[in-house]
Structure formats: structure tokens, C-alpha cells
Amino acid sequence: MSLVVAKRLVKTYDTGEVKVEAVRGVDFSIEPASLVAFIGPSGSGKSTLLNMIGGLDSPTAGELQVAGQEITHLSRRDAARFRGEHIGFVFQDFNLLPVLTVFENVEYPLQMVQNWTKGRRKNRVQELLAAVGMADQGHKYPSQISGGQKQRVAVARALVTNAELVLADEPTANLDRETACRIIDLMKQMRDEFKTTFVFSTHDPRIVDNVDITFTLEDGSLLKHEQTGGGKHG
Ligand SMILES: Nc1ncnc2c1ncn2[C@@H]1O[C@H](COP(=O)(O)OP(=O)(O)OP(=O)(O)O)[C@@H](O)[C@H]1O
Ligand SMILES: [Mg+2]
């Protein structure tokens, strides 16, 4: 079963004076344990699509199923619950909370959605920090680690609740070349290990070379759908 199914999906922003058709009736599906990139020029609708898939923004028309659930018309509360149960987010600017340590940043989503014991939370956080190569950095604050390390922490945070889908809006935009490559490798490894699906929006050719599927957007429409195939073996 597909993890994401979009049918004739539309998003129109009505700003009062003008209507912006950010997404104009797109159809696509995304399979479990895959790496997928949405590419296309600035303003083509990449972030809008990701936000709808993640239940951060609701479609104007069409259908959207994620993890077997119809999410087109969720209330705010149900959308929040849906995100907590199924989705992890990785952002361009990492979005770590500066007043929390690395450990506490990764622990944060667990406190929001599950009533686990402290000990169980601790084990889970350590497992993820180890998986991203940050096992011994948990006591540090975000200001004390590099950009690449911050993004590793963000990946650990996105995966800590066992999300089957991680949405990453330009996750490598603020990273140098080498660091970006390492983050992509890390996501591939997480995909293989945890069967997580990663969906990116990106301008970064290094990501495009490494994903399974590339969707090209232009002006809110889907132009192309390519099997890039680098993800499974590269
Ligand atoms: N909250 C909003 N209100 C009104 N218009 C919006 C809003 N968000 C996005 N848009 C418009 O929708 C269109 C698609 O924007 P979107 O952010 O999805 O593009 P993008 O492909 O992510 O671009 P970029 O590569 O620059 O991040 C653009 O015309 C944008 O101006
Ligand atoms: Mg964007």
C-alpha cells in the first residue's frame, strides 16, 4: 500500500486581493521506505505540497491520504495528532530549541505525544543519537555544535517517535557540500535501517542524484516523474 496518495490535489491561497494557485491539481503516490525529491523553480509549490502532506496546511480541493488516513479535512487537533503519530520534520534552518540540550531536543517530541517513562525515553533518545553519530554530544547546546551536527540532531528528532514519513524542506540548503552529502547518506541509512520514507523539497543536485524518485513541479503542476534509482544502491 502506498504511504502517500494524492488525487487532483489543489491548494489556492486567497490573500484577499489575489488568489495564488500554489498547487493546481496534482496526482502522485509515494511508496514506503523510499527517498523522494520534489524539485522545481522557486514558487513552484514544493513547500506547499510538503506542508499539506505533513498536515500543516489543508488542501483546497482533491484528496490526500497519508499512512492509510484521509487527511484532507482534518480538524486542527486531529492534524496535530496525525503529525505526532506519523510525521517527522527536518527544516532548512534545523529548528532546534536553543535553550534545550541536544539530548532534550531529541527527547522533546516523545514528551509531546507519548507517556513513556523517563527511562524508556532516555534509551530511545540515546539509540537515535547513536544512530546519527552524536552519542557523546547529548549534553551540548545547539550553539556549541556545527551546522552538520545540528542537522544530524534534527534527523534524530524527526525519527525518535518512529515516524514512518519524514518531510524535509530543503534540508541541505545551509550545509556545505561535504556535510550535505553526509546528511543524505545518513538519511539513506535510516531508510534502510528503520524503513523510513523521506520526502524532500530541494534545489540541491546532490539530493536529486541520491533519491529513488524525483517529481518535478512547475507553476503548481507536476511536469515529470522520474525513477532516479540512486537511493537503493548508491
Ligand atoms: N501562506 C501563503 N500565502 C499566500 N501565498 C503563498 C503562501 N505560501 C506560498 N504561497 C505562494 O504559493 C506559491 C508556491 O509557494 P511555495 O512556497 O510552495 O514554493 P516553493 O516551490 O517551495 O519555492 P522555494 O523554492 O522558493 O521554497 C508561490 O507563488 C508562493 O508565493
Ligand atoms: Mg519552499
Features:
about 230 residues; alpha/beta; Rossmann fold; 6-stranded mixed beta sheet; binds adenosine-5'-triphosphate; binds magnesium ion
TL;DR of this structure?
36% of the residues lie in helices and 27% in strands.
Give the SSE layout.
Blueprint (H helix, E strand, L loop, with lengths): L3 E11 L4 E12 L4 E5 L6 H8 L7 E6 L2 E2 L5 H11 E5 L10 H12 L4 H14 L15 H13 L5 E5 L7 H18 L2 E5 L3 H4 L4 E6 L2 E7 L2 H4 L1
Parallel strand pairs: 3-8, 3-9, 6-7, 7-8
Antiparallel strand pairs: 1-2, 1-4, 4-5, 9-10
Bound molecules: adenosine-5'-triphosphate and magnesium ion.
Structure description:
A hairpin with a 2-residue loop joins strand 4 and strand 5 (69-70). 36% of the residues lie in helices and 27% in strands. The chain contains eight helices and ten strands. The mean pLDDT is 91. The protein has helices at 46-53, 76-86, 102-113, 118-131, 147-159, 177-194, 205-208, 230-233, and strands at residues 4-14, 19-30, 35-39, 61-66, 69-70, 87-91, 165-169, 197-201, 213-218, 221-227. The strands form two sheets. Strands 6-7-8-3-9-10 form a six-stranded mixed beta sheet, with helices on both faces. The two termini are 25 Å apart. It has 234 residues and is of the alpha/beta class. It has a single domain (4-233), classed as 3-Layer(aba) Sandwich (Rossmann fold). Magnesium ion (MG) is lined by residues 46-47, 169, 201.
